[in-house]
Design a protein that fits this description.
By secondary structure, the chain is mainly α. It folds into 2 domains: 147 residues, Arc Repressor Mutant, subunit A; 93 residues, Alpha Horseshoe (Serine Threonine Protein Phosphatase 5, Tetratricopeptide repeat), CATH 1.25.40.10. 59% of the residues lie in helices and 8% in strands. The longest helix is centred in the middle third of the chain and has 20 residues. The radius of gyration is 22 Å and the shape is elongated.
């Protein structure tokens, strides 16, 4: 059985999605899968399911959801099981069959390889597991922002690292449209601005790279009262000077991009 959390919550058996029940029941499954092979305290589950305050019957409701999920998972001979451990529950399974854990495994492999082609391939595979916002059909926008924002940040970091590898492979022209779209969708992310500037410069479009910098500087000033990061300023200056070190810029600037301030 394959479990999917990177998008709507699904369990796939013999190529077909199982019926997992109502939203809260699917959320219980998602919580257990996020901590696959580890005990999740009932109190933590209650907190995530009812962030605005649980009903008096919350623990009984969780127990009922877990009982039904145990039947669904066990009925298909999936190799997965749900069991009670003290004041918590544990879903035992092959973590590699859970897309979020497969995503993290691929990220680890990509970061461990020095070969940029292999790195880019692994990161494309990891990103291909995403079908939409994580847990898209079971959590509210508020809960996603407050508790699960790190999942989206992990995806964006993986995108940054994949583009970084492809820039080092010289694919400047091929990346321009994608980076333009990414920056339009995430206009405050300086790493995407830096990568688009590098791609434009590498494609012989230095003036367009300077325009990207000016637009980012203006946006940061107008919306947040901030200046661009020192790394973005340095990249802009290097592009204006056509600095030979730009051939190596992506290795330094983009690799540190995840740590940049907005």
């Amino acid at each position: 059985m394959d479990f999917r959390l990177l998008g709507p919550v699904q369990a796939i058996a013999a190529g077909r999605p199982l019926i997992l029940g109502e939203r809260k029941q699917r959320l219980v499954l998602a919580i257990l899968l996020l901590e696959a092979n580890r005990v999740v305290p009932v109190e933590r589950m209650v907190e995530l399911i009812w962030p605005d305050g649980p009903p008096d019957s919350a623990q009984r409701i969780v127990q009922a959801h877990v009982s039904r999920l145990r039947g669904i998972v066990g009925r298909v001979g999936s190799g997965a099981s749900v069991s009670r451990h003290g004041r918590g529950y544990l879903l035992a399974c092959d973590a590699g069959r859970v897309d979020i854990h497969a995503f993290r495994q691929l990220l680890h492999q990509a970061r461990a390889t020095p070969d940029d082609e292999a790195k880019a391939t692994l990161l494309r595979q990891a990103l291909g597991l995403w079908r939409g916002p994580a847990l898209a059909d079971v959590i509210t926008a508020r809960l996603r922002q407050e508790v699960f924002a790190s999942l989206e940040e992990a995806r964006l970091t993986a995108v940054t690292e994949r583009v970084d590898a492809e820039l080092r492979l010289g694919r400047h022209v091929e990346l321009i449209d994608e980076l333009t779209g990414l920056l339009a969708r995430y206009p405050d992310r300086q790493p995407f601005a830096a990568q688009l500037m590098l791609a434009l410069h590498g494609a012989g479009r230095g003036p367009d790279a300077a325009t990207v910098y000016r637009d980012m500087r203006q946006r940061l000033h107008d919306e947040y009262g901030l200046d661009p990061s020192p790394e973005l300023v340095d990249l802009h200056v290097a592009i204006l000077r056509n600095d030979p070190s730009l051939d190596l810029a992506c290795r330094g600037l983009c690799r540190r991009a995840g740590a940049w301030a907005r």
